[in-house]
Q: What sequence folds into this?
């Protein structure tokens, strides 16, 4: 698909800053680094589990910068009472992974 | 629950 990513550039900047603050190794964050950040949202663990499933697009157990932005996007939307989707909407797939 | 193929790499499982 072609079209703008649902993560807006200004939001991406914010998420990138959080990503960098978590000291990624080789441009990746492991689950144990991401988990406390997501838990901080106070969302139910089953919801956060779904957020992880949707954002770890290549299923390598780590999030790169774009995957992390997807995770944060879903968490922020969930905090605004938008349901976390069961499958990742195509427009939420980072352009680098389409 | 989780989408089919839910992975053991999920730190929330």
A:
């Amino acid at each position: 698909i072609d079209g703008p990513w649902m993560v807006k550039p200004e939001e991406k900047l914010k998420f990138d800053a959080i990503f960098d603050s978590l000291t990624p190794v080789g441009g990746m964050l492991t689950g144990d680094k991401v988990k406390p950040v997501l838990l901080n949202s106070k969302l139910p663990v089953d919801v956060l589990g779904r957020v992880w499933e949707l954002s770890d697009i290549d299923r390598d157990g780590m999030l790169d910068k774009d995957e992390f932005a997807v995770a944060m996007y879903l968490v922020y939307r969930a905090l605004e009472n938008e349901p976390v989707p069961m499958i990742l909407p195509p427009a939420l797939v980072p352009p680098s992974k389409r | 629950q989780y989408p089919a193929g839910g992975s053991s790499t999920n730190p929330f499982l």
Remarks:
- The radius of gyration of chain B is 7 Å.
- Chain B has a mean pLDDT of 66.
